[in-house]
C-alpha cells in the first residue's frame, strides 16, 4: 500500500483525509457518532417524557457508561485478536438495532423506560468494542508523520458529535417526532457501513494469531506498566481528572453563583466542547509537535490554572472562558496521549493500550464526579475548584519528578 504522497511534505489540517482508507473510516465514524448522539438525546427526552423523574434520567447516563468500565479491557483484547476492519463493520451493523427497535416500540406505543435502559446498554456495549478497533487501525491507514494529525481528526469526531448530534436530534424530535427520529439514526448508519466495506487496507493484527483470554488482558496491563512514558501519561490523566473533575458541579455555578438558570447551564456545558474543538483545530494547524511530553505537561498546568480561574470567577463570561480553556487543554492532552500510545505500542498491543485509555477515563470520571460533589458539599463549589487546582499542581509536579522521561520525550 502506498502511504506517502509525492510533494506532500507539509502536514496540513486535512492531510490525513487525503489517504483514501483513512477518509473512509473517518467518514463512517462521523456518521455513526452523530447517529448515536441523536439517539442518546432522543432517549433522554423520552425517559423524562415517560417518567418525569430526574433520577431515571441519571440512570440512563449510568447505563450508557457502565459497559465501558466493565468490558473496556476485554474489548481491547478482542481488537488485538480479531480483524479490526471486520470488527468495526460488525459494530456499525449492530448500531442499527437500538434505533430500529426504539423506533418500532415508540410508533406502536409499547415503549417503556426499561426498553430505553436496555438499548442504552446495547448501544454503549457496541461502542466499547468499536473504539479500540478503530484506534488500532489508524496506524495502518497513515504514515507515522501523519499520526498526530489522524488522531486529532479522529478525536474531533466525538467532540463535534456532542455539539451537532443533540442539536439535530432536538430539531428532528420537534419536527418529525420521536419514532421517525429513531429511524433516521439507522438511515445515517447505512452509508457508514458502505464506507467500511470500501476500505482496502487489511484489518488483521500483525504477528501470530492471539487468543482472547485473561492472560492477554493482563499482558496489556503489564505492557503499560513497563512503558514508563505511557504509564506517566495515564497517571497524569488519572491524577488531574480525579481531583479536577468540574462538570458535575457546573449546575451550582449556573444556578447559585451566577443566577443564570437553564440558559447559563447550557452555555457552561457547551463551553468544554467548544474548547475541545478549538484545541483540536490548533493541533491540526500545528501539523506535528515533536515534544509531545512537554505539550501534555504544559496543557495540564493550564488545566490546573483554569480550574482556579473558574473558582474565583466573579462574572459569568469569565467562568465561560475558563471552561472553554479547560476543554481546550483537555483536547490537547487527550490527543497527545493517544498519539504517544499509537507511536510506542506495537501493532499487536494497540487495541489493549487504546482500551486502557477508555477504561482509565471512564473510571476516573466516575470517581472524580463523586469527589467533586463531596468537595462542593463540604467547602462550596468555588472553594472545591481552588482545592482541586492546588492538588492538580501537586500531582503534575510529583509525576514529573517520579517519571522524568515524560518531559524529555520527543517523537521522531
Give a summary of the structure in a few sentences.
The protein is an all-alpha fold and 412 residues long.
Q: Domains counted in the coordinates: how many?
A: 2
**Poorly predicted sequence stretches spanning 5 or more consecutive residues:** 1-8
Q: Report on the biggest sheet.
A: none
**The CATH architecture of the largest domain:** Up-down Bundle
* CATH-assigned homologous superfamily of the largest domain: MFS general substrate transporter like domains
CATH top level assignment of the largest domain: Mainly Alpha
> Helix fraction?
over 70%
Could you explain the architecture of this structure?
- The protein has 412 residues and is mainly α.
- Helices cover 81% and strands 0% of the residues.
- The protein contains 16 helices and no strands.
- It has helices at 20-51, 54-81, 84-94, 96-108, 113-141, 147-176, 178-197, 214-226, 228-244, 250-257, 261-286, 292-312, 316-344, 350-379, 381-402, 405-408.
- It is globular, with a radius of gyration of 21 Å.
